[in-house]
Design a protein that fits this description.
Helix content: 40-55%
Number of strands: 4
Distance between the termini: 50 Å
Strand content: 5-15%
Radius of gyration: 19 Å
Shape: elongated
Largest sheet: 2 strands, antiparallel
Strand order of the largest sheet: 1-2
Amino acid sequence: MDATALDDLRQEVAALAARLTALEAAAEAAPAAPGAHAAPAAAPADAQAHAPGLDPETFWALHGLQARLADHPSTTDGAVMLVGSVRLPDGGGDVVWQQGFGAEGLLAAEWSAHAATLAALGHPVRLELLRQILAGRHTTADLATLDDLGTTGQLHHHLRQLVATGWVRQSGRGSYEVPATRVVPLLAVIAGAER
């Protein structure tokens, strides 16, 4: 097998592993998370009635969500969803993710438990590392060539913080990836930070 075919095979296996990880995480996380549940894929025809005055072409996801709020006890007071379908620029395949939470469960939960996970995103070098890893730079050697990331010691410090909080995992010796279960939530945090 030549090097190109081997690289193609590795990419296909990585894509399958990412999809499997996302499916496993969805199956495990949905029942365990307070207020989390899977929502049906198609919106009912009366979705417009639940969000009057909002353009159904622009707010299609909101219409579908609001139409389903009464269908589950944890969402009668509202819900928050993370939904995404992302083609990664590194050729690692598509990541699809949906995660829903009842508003009551989110508002009642202890938020301080998430401080370390959110704090890990509070450093510009870590954000750049995440962006570069998603773009296809997976090895420590590749990441160390980037400007403004500091020394290799600082690079390893930042990578350890990202691994410890689950934003990144080691995919081999000196190689890192953003787990498929974290891609859409990460991009949602970045999008949510826009003003």
